[in-house]
Amino acid sequence: MALYSEKVMDHFRNPRNVGTIENADGVGEVGNAKCGDIMKIYLKIRDGVIEDVKFETFGCGSAIASSSMATELIKGKPVSEAMALTNKAVSEALDGLPAHKLHCSVLAEEAIKAALKDYYDRQGVAYDPAQFPDCAHCEGCGR
Amino acid sequence: MKIYADNAATTKMSRTAVDAMLPYMDEIYGNPSSLYTFGQRAREALEDARGRIAACLGCEARELTFTSGGSEADNQAIRSAAALGARKGKRHIVSTAFEHHAVLHTLKRLEGEGFAVTLLDVYENGLVTPEQVRAAIRPDTCLVSVMYANNEIGTVQPVSEIGAVCREAGVLFHTDAVQAAGHLPIDVGPQNIDLLSLSAHKFHGPKGIGALYARRGVALTNLIEGGAQERGRRAGTENLPAIVGMAAALEESCAHLTENAVRISALRDRLIAGLAEIPHSVLNGDPAKRLPGNVNFCFEGIEGESLLLLLDDKGICASSGSACTSGSLDPSHVLLAIGRPHEIAHGSLRLTIGEETTEEEVEYLIEAVQDAVSYLRSMSPVWRDLENGKATHII
């Protein structure tokens, strides 16, 4: 059996939405190079809808595939729907990830949310900070 | 195109080894411990193989014990030396920070049993010096264990000189020669080696078989209790086909050792030169004092697992010391030991070429790695920050 599903390999080999956005409305970066993965998400938002999204990722195959899938899942969606994105939705859309790679989908969710938080901050929109998890749960960081 | 560049992980069995083994699977399948003639034919083959392996190592046949592989040999060598030391109240062991886990985890276990362990630092070039060993030996030291050649970065340690230091101090010297056997000359006498581990599948022999050399007079401790096979030092019916295959493979490798080393080293140096053209890359381990087939690089701004996947798509079998490939949070302990920071160690690539590698393959490898690294850097936020000056290049 292969390490990854065909879906993961497809998104790894042909990642969607790679790149950056000039004058993005929200930018989020999570992870730590020490731990081996960093994801950066750029958002263009018009009338409460995610008009465009791009990502850059330093990490393993599943990190790249998770970023790609996460951007696909929120592109063209209202901000409220993007806020509801879960790591589970990302891993399920990829037909699953190996157990020790699930943190990649968590990182993808957190990257999207970090970019949305940045958008809210820039817009002066009030929010509940509890909606935005950080990667403090990852024991690999903060060494 | 399929390019196998992971010979440090395992090697393809040689035709000679396969052919040597076959009769011991279907025709001469008797148990070497059986009294009747059919069993004794197997016994003769077993002892013939032992003698031929001994000749390759410069030892006596009786000084060799067959094991299930390199890990078991390492475990038994260290356990045995520790037991001998403990009898004299000597409970200190010297080793290095970049040994194979078969050594390091055994030492960890012994620490829990009251032994003190000194792990020598390795310098950035991945070499330990005899002076370091001399300085670390204490009155209660019972064993020094230093690998002959490192499995990740391929650096070749000065085993003869380290052995001499140990001999002078009256301390047993073990070397894990799993990566060296069949690739570098071994002569246990002049090299002052008391205990040596090897594994057949690293030199085109079968998997699941290895050997432990223990100089006459160095008593081995049993890890596996049972019958009296291997003169009571390792119970269990001998894996005769594998043992015969190991002997054939080692003889063949040793017969062509020098010519192989010359040819493969030249390909290795071309590969190193080609990969060194990649900006912000660094060769891990000494450029000259390394195994003929070992190339190990770190590339800044990328992660090793994604590099391996891209290379796999191009038919290339390689390995990495990235945490993502090990299933742990930390990258390779070897790369950390030579001082590579975590973020650099994650971007490592090991290519280990062999007898079958061609010049065309080396050129293909260079191009494939250059392309894959550029591609991964083009989507890496770490690389972007390095390139636009927001972060500083480390290498």
Walkthrough of the structure:
The complex is a heterodimer of chains A (143) and B (395). Chain A has 143 residues and is of the alpha+beta class. In chain A, a hairpin with a 4-residue loop joins strand 1 and strand 2. The longest helix of chain A is centred in the last third of the chain and has 22 residues. Chain A starts with 5 loop residues before the first helix and ends in a 20-residue tail after the last helix. The model of chain A has no long low-confidence stretch (mean pLDDT 92). By secondary structure, chain B is α/β, with parallel strands linked by helices. Helices cover 42% and strands 13% of the residues of chain B. Chain B contains 15 helices and twelve strands. In chain B, strands 2-8-7-6-5-3-4 form a seven-stranded mixed sheet, sandwiched between helices. In chain B, strands 9-10-12 form a three-stranded antiparallel sheet. The two termini of chain B are 32 Å apart. The chains are: A alpha+beta (143), B alpha/beta (395). At the A-B interface, helix 1, strand 2, strand 3 and helix 2 of A face helix 10, helix 11 and helix 15 of B.
